[in-house]
Amino acid sequence: MKEVCATRTGWRVLRLPTNQGHAAALYIGMCATQAPWIVLLDGDGQNHPADIASLLCALEKGADLVVGVRVGRHDHWGRRILSRVANIVRNWVLHDGVRDAGCGLKATRREVVSALVLIRTLYSFIPALALAARFRVVEVPIHHRPRRAGHSKYSVLTFLQGWPLIDLIGIWWFSRRRFQWLS
């Protein structure tokens, strides 16, 4: 990565002192960039990079955050059910209207980063936090492929440990207490 970054102006590798998880890596990376637009793409190969163009098009049309909605998911049936239940519960509590908050492909304007808070399950709550700060969030259908690398770290056990529920309650509280400073 360092060799590739050395050949690109403005590129650099950020290295955390310890493995602090997906949410910390996303948040620190977003905070470190100076780019006006940021694209989030997981490294498991499930999202097709060609779909980035449609997300950027939505940013050009005025969206502040664009969330991919996985069409024709290639996940195991259990993962699809877990995702559907999580999205229904999240939407019932937060009323954000987002159908697929767990999709790893998102594009955002840099200003939206100021609306985020670093929590363990940040990736699922980026849209809700952006909406709470009055940013315009839109969804774009994207392709979904079988996982090409690694394995999912999110399972029924993740939910049983309670972190998503604790974060959901925290985001619900925070979004109602947030000072609305944007016009």
Set down the secondary structure blueprint.
Blueprint: H1 2-6, H2 22-32, E1 37-40, H3 52-60, E2 65-71, H4 77-94, E3 106-109, H5 122-132, E4 137-143, H6 156-161, H7 163-177
Parallel strand pairs: 2-4
Antiparallel strand pairs: 1-3, 2-3
Helix pairs in contact: 5-7
Name of the top-level CATH class: Alpha Beta
The number of helices is: 7
Shape: globular
Q: How helix-rich are the residues, as a percent range?
A: 40-55%
Number of E-type strands: 4
Assigned CATH architecture = Alpha-Beta Complex
Overall domain count? 1
Largest sheet: 4 strands, mixed
Write the CATH fold name. Spore Coat Polysaccharide Biosynthesis Protein SpsA, Chain A
Order of helices and strands: HHEHEHEHEHH
Q: How confident overall, as mean pLDDT?
A: 84
SSE class? alpha+beta
Radius of gyration, Cα only, in angstroms?
A: 16 Å
Strand content: 5-15%
Task: Pick out its properties.
single chain, 4-stranded mixed sheet, Spore Coat Polysaccharide Biosynthesis Protein SpsA, Chain A, 7 helices
In short:
The protein is of the alpha+beta class and 183 residues long. It has a single domain (21-177), classed as Alpha-Beta Complex (Spore Coat Polysaccharide Biosynthesis Protein SpsA, Chain A).
